[in-house]
Amino acid sequence: MIYDVIVVGSGFSAIAVTCNLIEQLPASAKIAVVGDDPGFGRGTAYRTELYLHRLNVPAGRMSLLPHHPDDFVNWLKSHGRPLQAGDFASRSDYGLYIRDTLARLLRRRDGRCRVDFIRAKATGCVERYNSTLAFQLGNGDEIAGKNVVLCLGVGNAKLPVDPAGAPLSLRSRIIENPWRFSWLRRVALSDAVCILGSGLTMIDQVLALRAHGHNGRIDVLSRRGLAPLGHVGKPPAPLPIDVEALPGTISSILKSLRERGRAVDDWRSVMDGLRPLTQALWQRLSSEERARFLRHALPWWNIHRHRVAPEVFDRFDKLVSEGTVRFHAGFLKSLRAEEDRLLAGYRIRGTQDIAEIRADWLVNCTGMERAGISHSPLLKEMSRFQLIAADPLGLGIQVDAASEVMAPSRISPARLFTVGALTAGQFWEITAVPDIRLQAKAVVEEIVAKRTIAEAQADNS
């Protein structure tokens, strides 16, 4: 079957695109949504059931459709969660809200377009003579579309050392994907845990351990030993920032922002003022300056930009203050065994000295890999046939300002878009819901506008 739009993926980006398509396309249109994740739309982050796993963005900015800004807050109230727009909801509630929003749109019978959900993995893509892009599916079927939106996420970052070097008896205690929460049930209450990586995923896992009754030591190893900072209950007003007035080099930009941070009562006002302008600032930077940012400034950007809810931060900070959670700055170099324990050898940052952390468990919380294409067989296949091109800095796929893929050799008039983390090379700040929902809406509007023009031309011919 030939569809008007094929959405490839099953995470938040896919559901945001699908909901916008349902709202904007006429009843005559046909949509296919292809993905093999049974928790369509909720993804890993929003399937967690732990109440301490909170959103990192206030509820008032988390509505799925940006033209219905109060939708999520109203949903919370209607489900007995009377949170305000500035409060931080649980991620499990947000997953349910996403599911309910899609279900509500699908229940519409008056003029709703056709939507087919295909539980399969797209394994290959080719151009067809009928002006479409066709996808081969893992179940043996093939579908084709006049417009395609790639909504594929990124894979889990791998451990920097091969876990195969550890004894077989201890490999089951190396947790490469911490979001498979079954491992928590195997941890004894007093076990020592070493967490590799100190970002948001690390905080989630620490709180999950505590919720399961764990009271042992937790050592956190990351390259710089930095941890995310917290939001405040009453955030300061964003500081107005003129992007065009900022310098053109990363070092000068950071100097300017630090000066502004020292001049205000709370540095968060500077970050929040910069927040809606980040994409514009990124697009002003040269490739050399973007690479310099990734090499030198990214860790500090992350801890200030991607903050955690106040309640979550207070709980975590208490564990750090008590010495239960200890930070180490260094580079993991080896994994070996000492009797029935793991020894994680690391080079201490700024030195050549090697230290070791003894633990019963090693948990990979280095987060998601940088938005490349190597984790996806489909993307590698599309790259091989030059239907897509990798971003020069390894930040996903090359797209233009409208999120349309810039393919080196594609000749089909079918249009190929990408939404979400794979467009980081063009937009940088494109992993959070407030950014993705705007991008999804803009992509759908572009598809609908071109379709309307084509139908008008056909009627006049």
Give me some keywords for this one.
globular; FAD/NAD(P)-binding domain; seven-stranded mixed sheet; HpyO/CreE_NAD-binding; 13 helices; 3 domains; alpha/beta; 461 residues
Query: In the CATH hierarchy, what is the superfamily of the largest domain?
Result: FAD/NAD(P)-binding domain
Determine the fraction of residues in helical runs and give it as a percent range: 25-40%
Number of strands: 14
What gross morphology would you assign?
Answer: globular
Helical stretch count?
13
Domain FAD-dependent urate hydroxylase HpyO/Asp monooxygenase CreE-like FAD/NAD(P)-binding: 7-154
Protein name: FAD-dependent pyridine nucleotide-disulfide oxidoreductase
InterPro entries: FAD/NAD-bd_sf, HpyO/CreE_NAD-binding, L-asp_N-monooxygenase_NS-form
Description:
This protein has 461 residues and is α/β, with parallel strands linked by helices. It folds into 3 domains: 2-155 and 370-460, FAD/NAD(P)-binding domain, CATH 3.50.50.60; 163-229 and 308-364, FAD/NAD(P)-binding domain (3-Layer(bba) Sandwich), CATH 3.50.50; 243-305, no CATH class. It contains 13 helices and 14 strands. Strands 1, 2, 3, 4, 5, 6 and 14 form a 7-stranded mixed beta sheet that branches. A 7-stranded mixed beta sheet has the order 7-13-8-9-10-11-12. The longest helix has 28 residues, at 433-460. The radius of gyration is 23 Å and the shape is globular. Residues 7-154 form the FAD-dependent urate hydroxylase HpyO/Asp monooxygenase CreE-like FAD/NAD(P)-binding domain. This is FAD-dependent pyridine nucleotide-disulfide oxidoreductase. It comes from Rhizobium vallis.
